[in-house]
Amino acid sequence: MKDVRVTVVIPTFNRGHLVSETIESILNQTHKAAEIIVVDDGSTDDTEEIVGKFKDKVRYYRIENSGVCKARNIGVEKSQSAWIAFCDSDDLWYPDKLHYQVELIRAVPSVEYCFTNFQNFRNGEYSRNTKFDDAPMNYWDIARLKATKNAFVATEPLYPKVLTFQPIFPSTIMMKRTFFDRIGQFDESFGRTMSEDLEFTLRCVQEAPIGVVTKPLVGVRWHERNFSSGKLPGISFILGDIEILEYSSKRHRLGPQYRALIQEQIINRSISVMHGAFLLGDFKLVRNIVKNIPVTCRSPKIWIKTAIAYLPYPIAKTSQQWLTVV
Fold first, then answer.
1. Burial per residue of 169-201, b for 16 or more beta-carbon CB atoms within 10 angstroms, e otherwise
2. Which of 236, 227, 221 is nearest to 276 (CA)?
3. Dihedral of alpha carbons 228, 232, 233, 239, sign
4. Which residues on adjacent β-strands are paired with residue 311?
5. Which of 20, 188, 231, 321 is most buried by its number of CB atoms within 10 A?
């Protein structure tokens, strides 16, 4: 554990205007990465030229556009280190990000997977709250042992916790290559699904120990490209969550054990999407998503909005505007 070699995998697609800043944040780590691998998922901008300016500091691979999951998997396949860390090409690492994770795994060598806290940032400004600050009350009331001043180790699976609130983003995680091989790679069938990383994360937290660095060490960038055009911010991510939760219920080892909780989360997210779709006037989505909401869980507003969604479009649109006003 004295020489913890870490490969950093950066998947990217048309982020030539951002990827340079991401790479610089990784090169500036106090615990130097053994290698940095950029996997270009078929960019049509100047990404290759930008990455090329770093010369032998970065290994660059270009693949046919296939989705971020395949890009991450290719990066791991090309890696030569015992540890793997991921960083999306629009995010930034604080200088001590790898240092604190290496400190954690040195303190508790049984840890094979760990993640850090983070802050969102937009237009160069960081959020006041960290992601952990936004967790529901009692979220971190779990079996644990203290590892360092800034980290602890969860000694129980976090699977049911992550079903209700997702504090783990790709740019915060580091894991042993053997752990990655054991739990399985990113599912490439979700490569074009919003929230594609949720399925992989749920598999990672089905077992313990899990290292948790409480210090915010990553800046997760929010900008217009985070969202699907034509939809309310976040609605595409929620639809992605629903798809992955349905999959997890059937395919994950712990899925059957937490099926009731998963179903509850699907209903809650479907209600959120339903209201958002109605506000947008996307009545087709309203009609489709309401099927996920049991009759016993439908409020009077849901019944009214559903009824309006089945009216001829001009009437539905007028009714929608009226209901929004009142």
1. bbbbbbbbbebbeebebbbbebbebbbbbbbbb
2. 236
3. negative
4. none
5. 231
Q: pLDDT of 70-106, one tens digit each? A: 999 999 999 999 999 999 999 999 999 999 999 999 9
Per-residue burial over 252-285, b if 16 or more Cβ lie within 10 Å, else e, is bebbeebeeebeebbbebbbbbbbbbbeeebbeb
- Helix (H, G, I), strand (E, B), or coil: what is residue 151? strand
Residue 36 pLDDT class (50, 70, 90 cuts)? very high
Question: CA–CA separation, 118 vs 18, rounded Å?
Answer: 18
The DSSP code sequence of 250-296 is HHSTTTTTTHHHHHHHHHHHHHHHHHHHHHHT-HHHHHHHGGGS-GG
- On the question of pLDDT at 222 being above 90, the answer is no
Q: Are 203 and 73 in contact (CB under 8 A)?
A: no
Put simply, whether the predicted model's pTM sits higher than 0.70 gets the answer yes
Beta bridge partners of 38: 10, 60
Q: How far apart are CA 323 and CA 326, in angstroms?
A: 5
Query: Which amino acid would we find at residue 291?
Result: K
Tokens of 114: 């760990």
Residue 227 has pLDDT above 50, yes or no: no
